[in-house]
Amino acid sequence: MPRPQRADYLALATYRHALRRFLHFSTEAARSEGYTQQQYQVLLAVKAAPTSAGLTVGELAETMHLRHHSAVGLVDRLTRRGLLRRKKDDQDRRRVRVSLTAQGEKVLSRLAVIHLEELRQLGPQLVRSLRKLGAG
Question: Where are the alpha helices (DSSP H) in the chain?
């Protein structure tokens, strides 16, 4: 593998800056609605689950790169706030699946709209950076 050139460092720095900008935006957007960044990510992960049955807590922990007990804590807090519901898995009653409530859907929708708008603005910069890195 050839040594990185100045242009490679610039592309990496530009890409990381754009990512950090988006993550900062996301944190502030979630906070303005009264949620943490991780809570928004949980809602998003549950909504994006491959089935309408939602995710198990274990699947959520894996998706979020969290320990199981940390995922349980997030689910507990979001359930208390009325954004998630727990339900026994239809095929394996030992497992619990989490899904969005109507209130959770509303909160996620509001946050997703503003995140999508930010990505529409920031996306071209991210794509240019990836292309310069040879990854896009």
Answer: 6-32, 37-47, 57-64, 68-80, 102-132
Structure pTM? 0.87
Residue 136 predicted with pLDDT over 70: no
Which residues contact residue 42 at a Cβ distance below 8 angstroms, ignoring those fewer than 6 apart? Answer: 60, 64, 71, 74, 75, 78, 84
Question: For 92-132, what is each residue's pLDDT tens digit?
Answer: 878 889 999 999 999 999 999 999 999 999 988 888 888 88
- Say which amino acid occupies 103: Q
For 73-103, give one letter per residue: b (16+ CB within 10 A) or e: ebbebbeeeebbbeeeeeeeeeebbbbbeee
